[in-house]
Amino acid sequence: MRAGLILLFACAAMATNPPQRIAGSYQVTLRLPEGGLYAQEEMQIEFRVEDTTRPDPVTGFTAVVRAAPDTLIDMPAMPKMPPFTEVAHAEGVPGDYGIHPTFAHGGDFRLRVAVHPPGAEAFTVEFPLEVGDAAQGKRKPPPPRYRLDIIADPKKPKAGQPVSLSLVVHDRDNGIVRQFDTMHERPLHLVVVRRDLAHFRHEHPSLEADGSFHLAYTFAAAGEYRLFADLAPKGAGGQILSAHLNVAGGGSEAPDASEPADTKAEIVAPTGPLPVRKTVPLEFLLRDARSGEPPSDLEPYLGVAGHLMLLEEDAATFVHVHPDDSGSLRFLARFPKPGVYRGWLQVQRAGAIRTFEFVFHAEETR
Ligand SMILES: [Cu+2]
């Protein structure tokens, strides 16, 4: 009995204390996938960099942004094994960074993170990584921790008629999630898209005191819709949760806003096929439709030069896209599987949002 209690206590302590390293005034917190690390599949490893000398009333410590950490993963016991290196990309939550390594086999690895805080001296921290073999990973796929529930009022929304949507995020272990980290100036980015990807909207429901989000919405047309919520439960990192909603006909079916007439957008890179399971830069160029020159009245939209959202044609695979730190329309995207993806680029020009649609083909390369 006593042994069981001690074990429980140890588990709880592990869950609440992620690995942490202190270097001078900085603190780096590691965030590993819930199912643990295993070989032969792309893993997502995240870490958070904070300045412990600058307390923040909301997040505890001030997040260190634009620190562009270099990462290196090697095996101290096997010095001949080529190390994996990657410049970490910034996640949506300020101070959070991520890498996507694929381990060739299981074993004891080491992660070194070299952080370059702007205007301060660089420092390096190390974490041991325990990687299971490939079969181990396949045996126990981790069940999703978070779930999105949508309550519509009226219950059966109709096209062309206003509906009130309540969104609630459930944590398998702790019930309703009430606290969120801000990503791109909002606690929730909601993508509403019809199953055939013909209708797309990007919304920011308001966070209510009870932890639910609220959105007054009017579906333009009838059909089956998917709602993708891009959010970060406090301290858990960015998550994408999805839910379905059927919209009946009736009312008047308003057409979606068409491509803006005053601006043209084109992809400048890459020009060839897109490889799957690799982080690739996607770069866009805007031109004023009349002058042919890049528009001079572009404004930041939610803190960045532009937003890019990507969905596979199955309307189920949402691609995580990270804006590049450069301030240009350059994004880092990862296509999880081969297929046709539709992308929506959004920018703000003279106070108004402009949305452009693109199609991408991701292929297996080898
Ligand atoms: Cu958004």
What tags apply to this protein structure?
about 375 residues; mainly beta; six-stranded antiparallel β-sheet; six-stranded mixed β-sheet; 2 helices; binds copper (II) ion
Overview of the structural elements:
The protein is mostly beta strands and 366 residues long. 6% of the residues lie in helices and 49% in strands. It is built from two helices and 30 strands. Strands 1, 2, 4, 5, 8 and 9 form a six-stranded antiparallel β-sheet that branches. Strands 22, 24, 25, 26, 29 and 30 form a six-stranded mixed β-sheet that branches. Strands 3-11-10-6-7 form a five-stranded mixed β-sheet. The longest helix has 15 residues, at 2-16. It is globular, with a radius of gyration of 22 Å. Copper (II) ion is lined by residues 186, 189, 202, 204, 302.
Concise structural overview:
The chain is mainly β. The chain contains two helices and 30 strands.
> Given the C-alpha coordinates, what overall shape results?
globular
Helix percentage range? under 10%
Quantity of strands, as a count: 30
User: What is the residue-mean pLDDT, rounded to a whole number?
Assistant: 85
Small-molecule binders: copper (II) ion
Estimate the strand proportion.
over 45%
Please describe the biggest sheet, giving its number of strands, its sense, and whether it closes into a barrel: 6 strands, antiparallel
